[in-house]
Amino acid sequence: MATVPLTLNPGHTALLMGDFHREGMGDNPIAQERGTVQTSRTVLEAARQAGMLVVYIVVNFRPGYPEISENNLIFSERKTSGRVPPPDPVSLIIPEVQPLPHEPVVVKHRVNAFFGTDLELILRAHTIDTLVLLGHATSGVILSTVRYAADADYRLVVVEDGCADRDVEVHTLLMQRIFPRQATVVSAETVIQVLSNS
């Protein structure tokens, strides 16, 4: 993790709560064992107290899944599952980290939080240049969003213990070898300390 002192300007920083779904983060035994949700909640509370923009990212679709191509290996099974997408995307989010009424919930149809969404518009409207990322899965929304956001010239902070993946080795590889090329990887404690001093 980062050895360079972390600095954050809450007025230009957004906390991205990536895919904190009841199915996924909520039923991941590794996340439960590591206390990822509880750790993320402490970061969320610190971000709110600091006045940071908090944005939630969820995956959801229209009835009939018109957004899903049969060529998409990740999502095509949903289209044939017969499941009806929930009309309220907030219902997908685990109870421990529910959004406040004024906090935007960005609905995406792919893994990347930016692809096909209005996330960039929201961030630009708030003059955000730094993103703090938490979520599930490390190899999904976090990886895909870090890659895009780095190319879009955002300053990135990934909270290691605020992320989880079903594959511990993949999580570790990403946090130790891949993300540091484009982001600062830190602990939740570090983020909370920085925000309390800002």
From TrEMBL:
The keyword Hydrolase applies. InterPro entries: Isochorismatase-like_dom, Isochorismatase-like_hydrls, Isochorismatase-like_sf. Residues 13-189 form the Isochorismatase-like domain. The keyword DNA repair does not apply. Keywords: Hydrolase. GO terms for molecular function: hydrolase activity. It comes from the Bacteria. PANTHER family: ISOCHORISMATASE HYDROLASE, PEROXYUREIDOACRYLATE/UREIDOACRYLATE AMIDOHYDROLASE-RELATED. This is Isochorismatase-like domain-containing protein. It comes from Candidatus Entotheonella gemina.
